[in-house]
Structures are given as structure tokens and as C-alpha cells.
Amino acid sequence: MVNIPRGTQDILPGNVEKWQYIEEMARDICKRFNYKEIRTPIFEHTELFLRSVGETTDIVTKEMYTFEDRGERSLTLRPEGTAAVVRSYVENKMFGNPSQPTKLYYCGPMFRYERPQAGRFRQFVQFGVEALGSNDASIDAEVIALAMEIYKSLGLKKLKLVINSLGDKSSRSAHRDALIAHFSPRIDEFCSDCNSRLEKNPMRILDCKKDRDHELMHTAPSILEYLNAESSEYFNKVKSYLTDLEIDFEVDSGLVRGLDYYNHTAFEIMSDAEGFGAITTLCGGGRYNGLVESLGGPETPGIGFALSIERLLAALNAEGIELPVEERVDCYVAAIGEAASAKSVFLVNELRKAGLVAEKDYLNKKVKGQFKAADRLQAKFVAILGDEELERKVINVKNMDSGHQEEVQLEQLISYIVEKSH
User: Fold this and answer.
1) Paired residues of 54 in beta bridges
2) Residue 99 pLDDT more than 70?
């Protein structure tokens, strides 16, 4: 037997309906916020992620699935969604569309080679949004509000929103120098990753999982102390808008996010549910002014977020929330006799054409076995047709919830089930 690869999962019937419900809910919310769906390839040129995500990030250095095709081109299974969306935005010249900003959402599998653990897989599904073309702080608040709306609409209550500002280039530069001065004297006490990040991107040291308890981590200079007037004003506007929207938040100067393209607003939404696990982040995002230019486009600000469907499901489970997913068959046609069985093929097809969920027996079961099958499918009605009833052009219909049964003219079966099902 060939088993499923480590870090992947089969999403089976009975469970996949929950995924469909979540995805449909998220799509509906995006529609209300006027975001349009975009679908990009599952693999891209490796250079795209080197230039956007950052060469010093864990994703690029440790986690990407990269391979050469037959033309000796280096390709990578997408580890995240933003880079691909921005690449498409530039390549398809969406910045020239008359309606701006360009507001997009996506949903699909991403791939990262990391140690599989609760709620984390090597192939996982992300739902994300990107808003490109606006420098207005209100769209930062809108993107955060959209993410919060998805979680709250599904019933989650134990949520915590954490925000930070990573500042503009000059603020980041001043903070960078301060971090280097802070960590340099004792950098040999840190892991090899932190040593390599010191000169390349010292802010990434703050995101290190191995050395997060080191005393220098707790005394590291805060980016908020190095925000210039413009960056500070922008951050204050974002906080003000969130307050206006009645969205609670905490400011955490240690929140840096794991990708190089972030600046100004950065945020994470976490689960505070008891027993959810050590890794509490459900969703992360932020502003990435400069990313479009780095991929060959015009100067264009942007902001977005991505959330994991797997972790969302884990949060729902931690809070004991059952999604209202009903997968019942409207009508099961039970046939007794050869002629009736042949007729059931037509009846089931007509029921389906009328928009109903219909099923019949395909295993030549006795009538008792057919009723058991109808029970397993939670059929609302069972239409029982025998050869005798077929001759009289009638059919017996049993309401499986009430137990009531009545004889219906065969030609009226479809309208009868439609009326009684709604």
C-alpha cells in the first residue's frame, strides 16, 4: 500500500463540508467588502520568492519545495500567496484599471517543508486578501476588519488582535542600527540563524523561536521608539480607525512577522481558547509598500493578510463550535420489482433536475435494506415504488421525520417533494 506523504491530509466526505462552509462564508464576506477572487499557479519561478519573501527568511532558507523542470528552470511550489498575487498584478497591469484600489482575495493550497504538528501541514490551505493601490490608513483597518469578520461570523469569540508598526524605510533603518548595536556584543550566544541575520536583517532575530527567551530579546530596542513623525502619525490613524470600528486590539512592539516585505502596519489574530495549543496565531498580515516596485511594477502601496483554514478549524474545535452543516438527502427512491427499479432511474434524475438531492439503490437491496440506506443518508422522504403502484401510476411517500405516509400521483411526485422540502 502507498501511504499519503507526511505532512499532508485527505479531507474526506463528512469533513469536507465544513471546509466548503468556511470557504463559502469567507467568499461571501469578501463580496460584501468588494474584493474579487484571483487564482494564480501553484508553482512560480523561484526568483519570485527570493525577491519578495526575502533570502534570510525561514521560508526561503529552509521550507520551500524547489525543483528544476526539464528546461532547467528553477520552480517553487508557492509557500505563500502575496508574492504570486503581486506578480500577477504587475504582469497583468492591474494598476491601470480605472477602479482603484485593486482589492483581491484568493484561496488555495500552499507548501512549506516544516515539521508537521497540530494544525500545521506541509500542504495547507490559505485564504487571503490583498488591497493594492491605497496609502490610506482606513484600508489597513478595513483589511483587519475583514479578517475579524470571517472569524466572528463563524462564531469564534476567544480572539485577540495584536498590532504593531514596522515603520517606513528611514524608521526601519534607524531601528536596524539600534538592533545591531544591541545584539552584536553577545551575538555568539544566539543560534546560527540569528548570527547570519545580524547584518542582513536584524529585525528577524526578534522572530527567532530558539532564542526567544534570551534576556537580550526582552530588552531589545522597540521599533515604536524609532518611528519618525510620519510613521507614528500613520500608526495612530490605524489605531483610531480600529477604535471607531469597535475592534479591540493590543499593541505589541515585538510583532515583526516572518517576511521581509512588511512595513508600517503589521498584525496577527490569535486564539485565546483554552487547550488550543502553544502556537496561537490564526492569521497574519500587514502593509507591504515597495513590494510591487521590487517585482517590476510602478510605485504601489499594498496591504493584506492570510489565514490558515486548518488552524481556523482547530480554533472552532477548541471553542466547541459546530458549524451548521446539514448534508441530508431530500428524497430516497426505494424500488420493489424490476419495472419499478427501471422507473426509479428516471424519477431520481427528475428530482435532481428540480434542484433536489436524490438517491436510489444501486446494490439490488431488499426494501428493508433500502430503508436502512435512506436512514444512513438522513433522507427527509422515502418514495416507495412497486410494480403494482407503477401500473396504477401512484407512489407512496413517507416523511422520515414524522413517520407520516401518503399515496401520491406519480406525475405529482416532484412537485410534492419540492413543496414539502421547503
Assistant:
1) none
2) yes
The secondary structure element, H or E, covering residue 144 is helix 137-153
Comparing C-alpha atoms, which of 377, 379, 381, 413 is closest to residue 395?
A: 413
Q: Is there a contact between 242 and 249 (Cβ–Cβ < 8 Å)?
A: yes
Residue 110: partners with Cβ closer than 8 Å, 6 or more residues away: 77, 78, 79, 80, 81, 123, 124, 125, 126
Short-list 126, 105, 153, 129, CA closest to 282: 126
Beta bridge partners of 387: none
Res 260: pLDDT: 64
- At 31, phi and psi to the nearest 5? -65, -40
- Residue 55 carries which side chain, given as an amino acid letter? E
Q: H/E element holding 76?
A: strand 74-77
Given its phi and psi angles, is residue 59 left (phi above 0), alpha (psi -120 to 50 degrees) or beta? Answer: alpha
Cβ-Cβ contacts under 8 Å for 224 (sequence gap 6 or more): 164, 165, 251, 253
Of 87, 41, 53, 46, the closest CA to residue 69 belongs to: 46
| Cα(397)–Cα(400) distance, integer angstroms | 9
How far is C-alpha 302 from the chain's CA centre?
19
Pick 305 or 212 by higher pLDDT.
Answer: 305
CA distance 370 to 364: 9
Q: Over range 184-209, report the average pLDDT.
A: 84
Q: How many CB atoms lie within 10 A of CB 411?
A: 10
Grid cell 476567544 in the structure block, residue = 158
In degrees, rounded to 5, the angle at the alpha carbon of residue 37 between the alpha carbons of residues 32 and 39 is: 165
For residue 288, what are the contacts with CB-CB under 8 A and spacing of at least 6?
82, 86, 261, 262, 263, 302, 303, 304
CA trace torsion 353, 354, 355, 357 (10° rounding): -80
What pLDDT score does 118 carry? 66
pTM of the model: 0.90
Task: Tell me how crowded residue 405 is: count the other CB atoms within 10 A of its CB.
Answer: 13
- Give the three cell numbers for residue 54: 526575502
CB 377 within 8 A of CB 331: no
